[in-house]
Amino acid sequence: MRVAVIGLGPIGSLIVQLLHQRKDMTLVAGMDIAAEKVGKDVGRVAGLKTSLGVTVVDTMRAIIQARPDVAVLCTTSHFPWLADQALPLLDNGIHVVTTCEEAVFPFNMYPVVSEEVDHVARSKDVAFLGIGVNPGFVMDYWPVTAAALLPRVDKLHVTRRVNLTERRSRLQEKLGAGLTPEEAQQRLQEKKLGHVGLNVSAQLIAHALGWTIESMDEQVDILVADAPVPWYKGELEPGRVKGLRQVLTAQVGGEERIRLTLEMALGLEEPGDTTELEGPIPLQVRLSPISGDWATASIVVNAISSIVRAQPGLRTVLDVPPVVGHGAES
């Protein structure tokens, strides 16, 4: 399988590293708009100790000329912007897999753009898929898959706790680490802070369970350090922001049926993911802490085999062939 990777930041670089380990996939192109990366070997840019013989380019034309079967886009969280990048690829018969959070379930938020992406993909007999750890698995696909064990689900609550100290610097900053509470509040108002995708996860869950969401509400709490805590710059002083707690609730049938709680903070104890399903036979499922960046890169690479077997069009994780892991070489 011939693969191109567009966006060679932290996640795109990990994807390149994983592709290098796969015998069933070949990296044929890499793209980034950062001037310091263009013209260099993709392997070196991605942190490998070896060159791959593939040079970083900065145009979609060059990607298309490389004739990949699948292009992986790791460029933006905003679906309309992602669609602008993906449409030329789809129009040239190239499948697209993306880490764009809003692309995991874009239909309700962006119906016109979704229709355009779906139409072009169908016309060229290729598929488009948004996937990731969150959204795309831990707070949506995993819970509704667990729901298959039950006769009925009345309510669903997912709690995700992430220790930001163990995550990359860019994610720490995205969650407000190091800011004053006043600075964090201002950036929240400007929508420049926090996790993107809880509303996407809620819509994917509702779609899977056959529910119609009547309204959604999202509350964000700023978490402030009350003692020194480690972060990528060394040690965060008390009084500074260490992370955020985001809680989204969705009303279905006149009552709260979906609650998604995401807490990401420096020094957070007992990280992990808990799904609670209420109904005639309640069920609680817990996952040990997930290695977020590697998990994101892994699920994207593992999805490549599924997307080429999927029905053409704009797809979700609910309607492509199951994305499964890759075993060690025998």
Classified by CATH, the class of the largest domain is Alpha Beta
**What spatial order of strands do you see in the largest sheet?**
3-2-1-4-5-6-15
Mean pLDDT: 96
Beta-strand segment tally: 15
Query: In DSSP terms, counting alpha (H) and pi (I) runs of 4 or more, how many helices?
Result: 10
Structural write-up:
It is a single chain. Strands 3-2-1-4-5-6-15 form a seven-stranded parallel β-sheet, with helices on both faces. Strands 8-11-12-7-13-14 form a six-stranded mixed β-sheet. The protein folds into two domains: 2-131 and 294-315, Rossmann fold (3-Layer(aba) Sandwich), CATH 3.40.50.720; 141-289, Dihydrodipicolinate Reductase, domain 2 (2-Layer Sandwich), CATH 3.30.360. The two termini are 20 Å apart. The chain is globular and about 50 Å long. The model has no long low-confidence stretch (mean pLDDT 96). It has helices at residues 10-21, 42-45, 60-65, 79-91, 111-123, 141-146, 169-174, 181-189, 198-209, 292-307, and strands at 2-6, 26-31, 56-57, 70-73, 95-98, 127-130, 155-163, 215-224, 229-231, 234-236, 241-252, 255-265, 272-278, 283-287, 313-315. By secondary structure, it is of the alpha/beta class.
